[in-house]
Design brief:
The structure is a single chain. The protein has about 325 residues and is α/β, with parallel strands linked by helices. About 25% of the residues lie in helices and about 30% in strands. The protein is built from eight helices and 17 strands. The chain has helices at about 15-20, 105-115, 170-180, 195-205, 215-230, 240-245, 265-270, 290-305, and strands at about 1-10, 35, 40, 55, 85-90, 90-95, 120-130, 135-140, 145-150, 155-160, 185-190, 210-215, 235-240, 255, 280-285, 310-320, 325-330. Helix 3 (about 170-180) packs parallel to helix 4 (about 195-205).
Length: about 325
């Protein structure tokens, strides 16, 4: 069949495919093709794309039946079914509004039947506790919460009931890696199982990566993932970033991915960052609050006698109907 496609260099193929999928532009009924130079990715819209596009013939792929087609819920509930999920390895993590919880097992079984890669479906009852881990209830499939996530040629083993991991940050992690200059010293203040630290160590060619987390389970899995991916130069450290970070060599780049409370540690980051360094601060907020955060960050920098500029503020992904995760890229003067 004929359809539009975007033409991408082979080395960028997976990155662009993931982004198109997240934006809802990727066509699932046509098979992606490639040659020695380019990847041709079928899309349903080319508006705003920076890569070249054209129309060409593609092999048709059978589109799997949607899980909603297997459900017969009371009137008014079908439109409340979620249209997207966090998929970590072979585990589908499901969030449901209260009205849908009584039908959770039916939904989970439908997901297993229509997604061949799913082996476990779990209900996410929210992020809780000191280490901000998901409160999971297994609904269908195998009796486990341990899985391995594959991302840009890397593998991350984890127990989703004991550590927090967001698969929706894959493109963002690659973005930061692409910004790095060889030889930088990096600090990941809330490293988790190591997705940022290991990605940056693998592709960004830093001189050192300091990876800090106060969840011992996260650090244990990070040590496993360093070995799993054959990474050098990453130093996992168990403890509170506020205590550990000031004792280390000054970093050139700091990752602050703890969206609900990272800004509470910004004073530490501003004090220790090298001149001309970069801080990537992640915050969940409503769009209307961006200017408030800008003013707050600028005021803190002035109080600490650090010059900063806002190189970039961008929406990473939506978090709720009114809030999104934003990244503030701060350059130190």
């Amino acid at each position: 069949m004929k359809c539009l496609c975007v033409i991408v260099p082979r080395e960028e193929g997976e990155k662009v495919r993931k982004k198109l999928s997240e934006e809802g532009r990727l066509r699932n009924d046509a098979r992606i093709v490639s040659d020695e130079i380019s990847v041709f990715i079928p899309v349903n819209s080319t508006e705003g794309l920076s890569h070249p596009t054209k129309e060409m013939d593609f092999e048709t792929v059978d589109v799997p039946k949607e899980y909603k087609d297997l459900l017969n819920l009371p009137p008014g509930l079908m439109e409340l079914l979620p249209s997207s999920f966090d998929i970590v390895g072979d585990i589908f993590v499901l969030k449901l509004i209260d009205e849908m919880v009584p039908y959770a097992e039916d939904i989970a079984n439908a997901l297993l039947e229509t997604n061949r890669n799913a082996k476990v479906v779990a209900l996410d009852r929210g992020v809780k506790g000191e280490f901000r881990t998901r409160d999971l209830v297994l609904l269908a499939g195998e009796d486990r919460t341990v899985t391995v996530q594959k991302e840009y040629g890397l593998r991350f083993e984890m127990d989703l009931a004991k550590v927090y991991f967001s698969p929706r940050l894959a493109t963002e992690r690659r973005r930061i890696a692409d910004l790095m200059v060889q030889g930088e010293r990096v600090m990941d203040m809330f490293c988790g199982v190591g997705p940022f630290s290991i990605m940056l160590a693998k592709t960004g060619k830093p001189s050192a990566v300091y990876a800090i987390d106060k969840n011992p389970e996260a650090i244990n899995y990070m040590i496993k993932n360093i070995k799993l991916n054959k990474i050098n130069g990453v130093s996992p450290m168990l403890g509170d970033a506020r205590d550990i970070a000031p004792k280390l060599a000054r970093p050139d780049r700091i990752i602050m991915n703890l969206p609900h409370t990272a800004i509470d540690f910004l004073d530490v980051a501003l004090k220790i960052i090298n001149p001309r360094g970069t801080i990537h601060l992640y915050i969940i907020l409503e769009a209307e609050a961006i200017d408030i955060i800008r003013r707050s960050v600028a005021h803190l920098a002035v109080s600490l006698k650090r010059g900063i500029s806002f190189k970039n503020i961008h929406e990473v992904h939506t978090y709720s109907p009114t809030q999104s995760l934003y990244c503030f890229d701060l350059l130190i003067g």
